[in-house]
Amino acid sequence: MSTPPHVIAYRVITVTLATLILVVVGFGLAGRGPLGALGTHLRTPSTQSTGVAP
Amino acid sequence: MSSLIFFLLPIGFGVVLCAIGLYRGLVQSPVLVTPQNYQDLRVKAAPVGVGQFPPDLAWPYYPVRQAAVDLAEVRKHLLEHYLRTWEWPRDAFFLGRHGRRLAWWFFFPIPLTVIYFLVLVGLAAWFCYGVYWLVTTAVAGGNMVIFGAAEAAMRSAERHRRATRHAQAACMRCFHVTEWPAYRCHGCAQLHHDVRPSRLGLITRRCECGTYIPTMASRTAWHLTAVCKRCRQPLSEGTGAVRDIRVPVFGDTSAGKTRFLYASLNSLVRTAEQEGIELSFPDKASKDQANFGLGLIRTGRDTTKTSAAAPVALTCQLGRGRRSELIHMFDAAGEHFRDAQRYDELRFLDDSQGLVYVLDPFAVPAIQDQLTGHNAAVIRLAHAAAGDPEIAYDEVMARMRDSGVPASAQRLAVIVSKADLLRRTGLELPAGSAAIAEWLKKVGMYNLVVSSQREFAEVRFYTVASQDVAADRADDPGAPLSWLLRAHGVQLPGDDPAGPPASPAQP
Fold this sequence. Notes:
The complex is a heterodimer of chains A (54) and B (507). With 54 residues, chain A is mainly α.
């Protein structure tokens, strides 16, 4: 029994959406795209106070 | 360079592993929830009761079942492939199947690097699967919410439309009446018993054979062949989508039921012709019978006694297409009402929207007394019914009560038949429903008049002549039928010559 078109359509949509999300997250981790700030933030050294007076 | 080897490479490998899982689960060897699988699951969850039908064989909506199956398949393949990547390292580092274990652990960075690599591969692969799971679940969940709301709205609109249109499905062979019929698929002849918007489809559904079927009887009726759910005989086009009115005619043997049926049909045909309304007979049996009956009335020949074998049903379609109306008229031989064992053959009484009781005035004892010594030839021509008119009425009422049919929701037209013959004897007949009711009370039909007015929602009394209809339409055989049809929303011209109903009896 062949796969009906609506099942194929749903599979294509879900896999495409998942791929898009992964690509966006991947680029984000690399510091690019809409989530670029995420990668930048992860790579930037912490500037928080160490508690020692300068 | 080191980040490429220690970070991006395992992540890339994990993505590829997930892609393989997706390919194997969705493309190479997918598991399909077929119509038969889905039917089995639903029957298992809710066994089919007596008089019910199993869910139709059509492809279920993706989010209902297939989405979960797809997720499970991808997960299964991903796990299988991921475990396979661990096989060699496990055998080598922990089971000693590829040389001595200690030797491997002596070169300490190698096992640790491989394990680190595989853990990162796993994390990346399962992260990808997690994203796919989230997307599929969100799409399915969102769809189900929107789908559920749309389904409820569409079902409600269809229910309202059906209620206002009085759309039902009546089979003229087995007299089974249902809210909507079954529809036969053009592709595989499979029957679809419930075409309402459901998990099998909102706007259209896909039959097991691949044929697309519009949902809702108001649309399906114009695309597929309607079939009776009980006897599986084909029904008229549009059944289940158009107004469906059933009018049984009952009365004693030789009371004039068949003649009234044909005469009222003749009147309806003429009215339709005058007003330019199309009137047709959707099946050959009805067409033949109508041609025969109309021929009898128009040529003034006598009507033969109705066969006691089975009730006669005649269907005509008033109008054309989606705005048309199906009108069914039933006529059973008087013997059916007498014989308690033949009650089952009178099933059409249970689902009628209006009843016609034919009363033969020549069978009323008081009128017989009045006619003594009058025109003997006319009295012979009347072929008076032998039984008491009240008995046939009481028997039908008893049957309706036994069947649990509420007469209080129905209308009754009481017909005093053979009015032309009665007038020829010299008797004066009243005109108008109230006057006829009073006259019947005076001639000994008091109980019939009073009980009918008490039991039915509305009763009107008519005098009817099949031949010599008066110019003022006082004896028009079409008047009772027109009243009953108009009462159920059929657009017919003119008003009721009987006037307002007779006052109900005072308790």
